[in-house]
Amino acid sequence: MQSQLSFIGVPTQKRGKLIPKEAIKLGCVPKTHFRDLTQGKSVTLENGTVVTPEQVMDKVQPSEVFIINFIPDQSYVDFSDETFKVFTSKYEDYFAENISDDKKVSVIYH
């Protein structure tokens, strides 16, 4: 009996970009605070105000997971809706146990 082999690739998550105008508007100094903010650290200004990365950065971009399936023949992809549900439920179980909700599958290659 032949079997299917799958690989699931989960790249690191892309962080959001700094919005310099927002940071400056809140009182941040480019050479002093921008590096810490882009590394995910909060900064405390001279007046005691705390600026968090979430306040001055774009939303984090989700990782785009990809799946590569090695299949022995066409019968592995020619299946009914019910068989497809069983097939995809195996991935759903894996994702539920191992991969956070902020990631999405962008490519499945057979």
The percentage of residues in β strands lies in 15-25%
Written as H for each helix and E for each strand, in order along the chain, the element string is EHHEEHEHE
Q: Please estimate the helix content.
A: 25-40%
Our count of helices gives 4
Major sheet strand order: 1-4-5
Secondary structure class reads: alpha+beta
Low-confidence stretches: none
Count of extended strands: 5
What assembly state would you assign to the polypeptide chains in this entry? single chain
Biggest sheet descriptor: 3 strands, mixed
Provide the residue-averaged pLDDT.
78
Indicate the topology.
Blueprint: E1 5-9, H1 20-25, H2 30-38, E2 43-44, E3 50-51, H3 53-56, E4 64-70, H4 81-98, E5 104-109
Parallel strand pairs: 4-5
Antiparallel strand pairs: 1-4, 2-3
Structural summary, described in words:
By secondary structure, the protein is an alpha+beta fold. It has two domains: about 70 residues, no CATH class; about 40 residues, no CATH class. The protein contains four helices and five strands, in the order E-H-H-E-E-H-E-H-E. The longest helix has 18 residues. The two termini are about 20 Å apart.
